[in-house]
Each structure stands twice: as structure tokens, then as C-alpha cells.
Design a protein that fits this description.
With about 375 residues, this protein is α/β, with parallel strands linked by helices. About 35% of the residues lie in helices and about 15% in strands. The protein is globular and about 60 Å long.
Length: about 375
């Protein structure tokens, strides 16, 4: 049996398919499961995953439509029995690509919003989107069309596989920067900017105050992750005595360093999900996105958010996020979260770190 996973929508969405992928291969160990991606970081993330036979990378966002069509038609020659659009993939372009790939059974989600206009009719097997159901479970529901005997209880944590080179990079970085046996806190203060998701970001000034509190009380050293140089630069400028911006060459080197952290603080981003896969205790700061669908899967965490009548308000669609408020009140679901609330979440997680583990040692 030949199966194709279309993980086109981004890093966080891609990693949230990994538990369902493991269940799929458990039930069909002799199947060939390939993956199509359009972000190089996703290719790196799945490169060493033993459940994937081949990964195809197509730069749909930058290359010509003609080149994209040729690449899709070349993959089509594999004559897949099934293909799945990873959840969420609520764009007509994703459904068009899946249609052109020509699998006998094309599996996708029928979304509650912007459904017909996303051309979901191009798929022949649709699962209805379910409010407040975690993305991992939505992906699992699609896998059940292929292996109906699969059980939710078989789902495990996110799967992240490192190369020896990745682990060596992290260890050498720790030694070179005198970080061995230090209490390490990872921050991801950025976010994607597409569809207005820059509004996911908790203010850099608040991250600065949080970093200073963690350093003062726990002698924490802070590692700043993500590609948002402006945000990380601003935080580092105010905390340079105890913060670092690792110069990793790819996402796997960054993740190998994240794995060394004792605590991780972030907005609702792909790195939040990856920290869950690394089993780093985490404080996750949510705004308008649905924490019930996106909480850190199978990992110790504390959600920090405001319970507002309008939140969560964002749903999966190609439309940019909007807020019913304007001016200083706009996106107050994120802006109104205070430093002491996030610090309290960090304190709660720090209390759970085993007392026989030295700061900086692996606790997972």
C-alpha cells in the first residue's frame, strides 16, 4: 500500500501529524508512506523519521506554477492508494494539489468555515471538523479512514529524531558558552506574520521583565529561539549578561539546544509544539487561538490566557485574523496578560523539576 501525506501548511501543523503517522505505520508496517512538504524546515524535521519512506520538497510559494505542476505530476506517477491533507489545511490550493496528485482516496477535513470556496469537493473522503478537538485527534480521525481498527489510546507524543551531528552541535554550544549545569530557560517571543499572526506575540518588553525575574530568582540563563532577529535582538540587548541567541544553521540544531532547556516559554507557535515533542516543561501564552485544540500535546505545561467572552475567536481559514476591538483594546486577549501571571506559571513548573537533577541537566 502506498500513502502520501501532504504536510504543506507549516512546521507546527506537520509535527502534530506525527502521532497519527506512528499509529498508521504500527497497523500497516509494510506500507510505503511518503510526504510532500513546501517548507525546508518540515523536510529537516521528518528527514530521520523511520515512518517516512521518501520526502518530496516543492517550493510552491516561490517557483513558477508550471514547475509546480510538473513536480506534482511526477509524484503522481507513484500511483498512491491514499493521500491525506494534514490538518489544518484550509486553502483551495492544498486541495487542488491533493487532487492533482491523483491518489485513489483523497482524505481531508470539511471545515466549518470557508468550506465550499476551498474546493474541498476535490477530495472523495471528508471528515467533519470538530470544535475543541485537538489537532492531533483531527489528524488521527483521518488516519482511521485507512485503519479503522486504530484506537485513540495508541496515540503517543510528537516524534522528533535527531542526527548525531545535531546532538554534537548542541553539546559543543553548551560547553563553548559555559552553559553546562546552568538553569536554562528557552524563549520564543516571535511568531509567524502571515494572516496577521504577528498579533500572537506577547510584548518583547514583557519577555525582558520575565527574563530578569527568572535570572534574579533562579539564576536562569535564557536561550532565545526563532528567526525573529528584531524581537530577539531587543530582548538580548536588555539581558545580554545572561541571554544567548544561538547561531544554529538549521531547525534541528535549534531543537537539539531546546532539548537542553529546563523550561520553555513561548507564544502559541510551531516552537511551542516542538518543545512539547522534546518534553521540556512549558508555559504557553495564548491569545485568540483555541488552546483546547492547540495545547502542548502530552507534555507538562501551564496555559496562560485571559478568559474573555470573545476568545478564542480564530478559526482555520485563509482569512487574516481580526479583532472586534480597536485602538489600545485591540487583541487585548494577549496584551492584557501580565508578567506576574507568566512568572507564576514558570514557578509552578520549576517546583516540579526533580530535586536530584542539577540545573542544565536533561530531565527528559
Amino acid at each position: 500500500m502506498r500513502i502520501l501525506i501532504n504536510a504543506l501548511s507549516g512546521i507546527g501543523d506537520a509535527i502534530m501529524f506525527s502521532p497519527a503517522l506512528s499509529v498508521l505505520k504500527k497497523h500497516l508496517p509494510d506500507s510505503e508512506v511518503d510526504m510532500l512538504v513546501m517548507f525546508p524546515q518540515v523536510e529537516q524535521l521528518y528527514r530521520n523519521n523511520p515512518d517516512i519512506s521518501r520526502i518530496y520538497f516543492a517550493d510552491f510559494m516561490k517557483q513558477s506554477k508550471l514547475k509546480s505542476l510538473k513536480e506534482v505530476l511526477k509524484i503522481r506517477k507513484n500511483r498512491y492508494d491514499y493521500s491525506i491533507n494534514v490538518y489544518p489545511s484550509n486553502r483551495k490550493e492544498y486541495n487542488l494539489v491533493q487532487y492533482l496528485l491523483g491518489a485513489k482516496e483523497k482524505i481531508a477535513i470539511r471545515y466549518d468555515h470557508v468550506s465550499r470556496s476551498n474546493w474541498d469537493f476535490l477530495n472523495n473522503t471528508l471528515k467533519n471538523e470538530e470544535l475543541n478537538r485537538h489537532n492531533v485527534l483531527e489528524n488521527f480521525d483521518m488516519v482511521k479512514f485507512i485503519v479503522p481498527e486504530a484506537m485513540e489510546s495508541e496515540l503517543g507524543p510528537f516524534r522528533i529524531y535527531f542526527s548525531i551531528e545535531d546532538m554534537v552541535f548542541a553539546k559543543e554550544y553548551m560547553i563553548d558558552n559555559d552553559l553546562m549545569h546552568k538553569f536554562l530557560v528557552g524563549f520564543h517571543a516571535g511568531s509567524a506574520v502571515l494572516k496577521g499572526h504577528i498579533n500572537k506575540r506577547w510584548a518583547a518588553e514583557k519577555y525582558i521583565r520575565l527574563a530578569k525575574l527568572l535570572h534574579e530568582k533562579h539564576n536562569a540563563e535564557v536561550l532565545l529561539f526563532g528567526t525573529e532577529a528584531d524581537v530577539n535582538g531587543k530582548i538580548h540587548e536588555e539581558t545580554k549578561e545572561f541571554s544567548f541567541i544561538p547561531a544554529a544553521s538549521n531547525i534541528m540544531e535549534s531543537l537539539a539546544l531546546m532539548k537542553r532547556c529546563n523550561l520553555f516559554v513561548s507564544n502559541d507557535t510551531a516552537l511551542m509544539h516542538l518543545a512539547a515533542g522534546l518534553k521540556v516543561p512549558q508555559a504557553a501564552i495564548f491569545g485568540y487561538t483555541n488552546y483546547r485544540e492547540l495545547y502542548p500535546w502530552m507534555n507538562e505545561h501551564v496555559i496562560v490566557r485571559k478568559e474573555l467572552p470573545c476568545s478564542p475567536c480564530f478559526y482555520n481559514s485563509p482569512r487574516p485574523v481580526t479583532c472586534i476591538f480597536t485602538g489600545p483594546e485591540e487583541f487585548k486577549c494577549k496584551k492584557s496578560i501580565e508578567v506576574d501571571e507568566v512568572f507564576a506559571a514558570c514557578e509552578k513548573l520549576i517546583e516540579e523539576i526533580p530535586r536530584n537533577v542539577k540545573p542544565g541537566d536533561s530531565i527528559h
